[in-house]
Inverse folding.
């Protein structure tokens, strides 16, 4: 499931001392579209590379967690998704903002499972975050989740993250009760990252 560009910098799994910021993909890192199936459709949102650079400088790992139900619905070939993610990783690395890993859920929406299985892979399930934590020795209690939909924030809360934040750069407006479902709402990733950094250094080393 992980298509991370490089895991070289990660501490050995099991140390569980490393903090991460989990980032949603569409509407948070890149412009949201109906279906992104080609590298040329990847458009990084303004300020994203700088925000990631700042998080990395503060010691956070950067892990993308994205729902990609188009795969289970037969609308997106996994090889195409891999090419898109390689392009995203390459583009950010070229901007000095490499990603540590990308996790995706191919699973279809399932309201019943989302209500009864908080650890489901698909957000609002916490499965991708839990898997990343296990595979990369991440400390969830010191980590943050940032996305553009309430289900992103819920996934962060279910995973036990220190904070779950929302940004307004997605296509869909946030629902009226979004403020109750997140620990903060910001205009864009830069704003959310300023909040993360204001909380102090990620604990651990
Ligand atoms: Mg999104």
């Amino acid at each position: 499931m992980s298509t991370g560009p490089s895991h070289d910098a990660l501490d050995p799994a099991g140390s569980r001392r490393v903090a991460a910021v989990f980032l949603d993909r569409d509407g948070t890192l890149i412009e949201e579209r109906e279906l992104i199936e080609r590298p040329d459709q990847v458009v990084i949102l303004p300020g994203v590379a700088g925000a990631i650079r700042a998080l990395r400088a503060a010691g956070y790992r950067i892990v993308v967690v994205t729902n990609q139900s188009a795969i289970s619905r037969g609308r997106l070939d996994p090889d195409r998704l891999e090419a898109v993610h390689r392009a995203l990783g390459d583009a950010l690395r070229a901007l000095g903002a490499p990603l540590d890993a990308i996790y995706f859920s191919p699973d279809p929406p399932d309201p019943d499972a989302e209500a009864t299985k908080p650890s489901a892979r698909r957000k609002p399930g916490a499965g991708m975050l839990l898997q990343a934590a296990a595979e990369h020795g991440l400390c969830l209690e010191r980590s943050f989740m940032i996305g553009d939909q309430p289900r992103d924030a819920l996934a962060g809360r279910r995973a036990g993250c220190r904070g779950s934040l929302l940004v307004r750069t997605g296509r869909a407006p946030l629902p009226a009760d979004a403020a109750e479902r997140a620990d903060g709402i910001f205009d864009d990733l830069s704003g959310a990252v300023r909040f993360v950094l204001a909380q102090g250094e990620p604990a651990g080393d």
The first strand starts at residue 20 and ends at 23.
